[in-house]
Design goal:
The protein has eleven helices and five strands, in the order αααααααααβαββαββ. It is α+β, with helices and mostly antiparallel strands. InterPro entries: HATPase_C_sf, Sensor_HK_TwoCompSys, Sig_transdc_His_kin_sub3_dim/P.
Amino acid sequence: MLLALLVPDPAAPRAASRDRIADAVAIVLALAYGLGMMRLGDATRPGAALPWPADVAVGLACAAALLLRRRHPLAVTAALLPFGAVSVTATGPIVVALFTAAIRSRLPVLVVLGAVNVGTAGLYFVLHDDPAFDIRVDFVVRGVVTVAALGWGLFVQAYRRLTTSLRDHATRLEAEQRLREDRARLTERARIAREMHDVLAHRMSLISLHAGALEVRGTVSPEELTLAAGAIRGSAHEALEELRAVVGVPTGRPEPPQPGLGDMDELVGGARAAGMAVDYRNELPADIPPEVLGRTVYRIVQEGLTNARKHGTGPAATVRLAGAAGHALRVTITNPFTGTPSARPPGAGLGLVGIAERVALAGGRVTHGPVDGAFHLDASLPWPA
């Protein structure tokens, strides 16, 4: 609360300026209507309830009261209604006040205010000594104008409620989407952590195994070899325990290494066996990328093929791998897609969030989106020389 008071809202000056313009327009329209009705009616004839200068003065005072209609719509309307019995110029400000009250009040209250406004037409007819028109004309004119003002105000009220409801609904959907994306990022990070654990656990288990063999089967400098092998074995075991504690995976038999670039043919073959037409081309040189990089590429292609199968408009995809050591490794996946991102079901695209998280952790960049009837996913990953 204190922060809201100390830091001004940047939208507040614009809103205040907009309100001032709206008030000025409302007053001008109210006076134009009131003065027009005074000229067309019998307010300038002898026998009117008020002389026309006084009629205009009352109308001006009522128009000035419209400046308070935003904060006190019902009070301003109730205060102006009696002047409709003696002043024709005041009918303009009264119509504007009724419109403002209709925006912010319930229907039963508006019915009472409208009935009172129409009833003042009868009082004006009675107070006029020599009216030029029949009382029915006054009732019809004031009744039509009252219904129009109230109806327009109720329409604006309903429109504002609808837009507020839609805006709230959109805000909730955006919050839910952000929550799903955050969960997807956390899931991807957890999967990467599990992969790191599995790979390092496998390596450390091998180190521990070889160190144990060296400790038992050393042939030169037995004492020094035994001490060195024991230190290697102890360090590997401690590193493995620390890794398990950090990642949070229970101790037990280490899992084999996760799939990498060498398993890409098997991944593509599985997609083809599931009925998907995959055009796969590996244009990488003979250099073998680092294992972590290969595993990242495998996961990107795996998720890309899954998205193409679930959200594409045809069971087909094109996969391209290109790059060189010292530059970057580029993964391009294309599949038919004739819809729009907004047309996809809720939750769709969370796999792309996981890809973006994985690529970001690897220091790369990724772009994706529909282009010319196809969905393109392009990831670029650094490949150290």
